[in-house]
Amino acid sequence: MKNTSILVIEDEQDIRDLISFQLKTEGHNVILAESVDKAISIVERPEKIDLFIIDWMLPGVMSGLEFTKKLRAQKTYSDTPIIMITALTQPDNIVAALDAGADDYITKPFDLNVLQARIRVQLRNIEKDEKNSEDTLDFGLLKIEISKCRVLVDKEEVNLTSTEFKILSILVQKPGHVFTREQFINNIQGENIFVTGRTIDTHIAGLRKKIGSAANMIETIRGIGYRFKDTL
Ligand code: CA
């Protein structure tokens, strides 16, 4: 993969310097901003950012959370990995960050090695997307043929309802990413179906039962949502 450009938005200089030093030793191209004001002028440049690390609480025009929402509304950055860092640690905060569009969330104080590992997961997902544009997603025990809506567990086909299939396809798009119930609802809600957080739980339970030996690939993140296990 080419040199990745990472934009770090963090108002505490010590943390900013620490992250910057660590990422540079990893060979990344690091761009620093101490506020959203500064970050806005950076994202307006033609050079594309490959990954964002955004502190939630920032002085200035808007918080990191609001900036995350803003980025998601832009075509250029609707899908670029965002890792949010913050001192807020409650499940509600985490849900808010994920709902705003963050791909991952890390609480302060954090270990730089953990941050690096999270960055690697996000960058790996980009690589997978780049080469995995073909139709079959292969997770070993579990294989999914998206266009045919076919799911195979240990080479045996399993019959899922369309909602179960949708939930599974959302999860496997981003292994390691935690999806909130709200995000499933927004993706699934349609003309003929109405879903709530509780019905999502019910569908997940049904899905796990049907995929049997692959069920533990879907993890419950208590109070927050669900995640497909990053198998690598
Ligand atoms: Ca801060």
Please outline what is shown here.
The chain is α/β, with parallel strands linked by helices. Helix content is 41%, strand content 22%.
Features:
232 residues, alpha/beta, Rossmann fold, Arc Repressor Mutant, subunit A, 2 domains, binds calcium ion
| Global mean pLDDT | 91
User: Which small-molecule species are bound to the chains here?
Assistant: calcium ion
**CATH fold-level assignment of the largest domain:** Rossmann fold
Count of domains: 2
Instruction: Please write the string of helix (H) and strand (E) elements.
Output: EHEHEHEHEHEEEEHEHHEE
For the CA atoms, what is the radius of gyration?
Answer: 19 Å
Provide the β-strand percentage band.
15-25%
Number of helices: 8
Gross geometry: globular
Q: Architecture of the largest domain, according to CATH?
A: 3-Layer(aba) Sandwich
| Low-confidence parts | none
Q: For the record, what CATH class of the largest domain applies?
A: Alpha Beta
Distance between the termini: 18 Å
Helix-residue proportion? 40-55%
Tell me about the biggest sheet? 5 strands, parallel
- In CATH, the homologous superfamily of the largest domain goes by the name Response regulator
Strand order of the largest sheet: 2-1-3-4-5
Structural class, please? Answer: alpha/beta
Could you tell me the number of beta strands?
Answer: 12
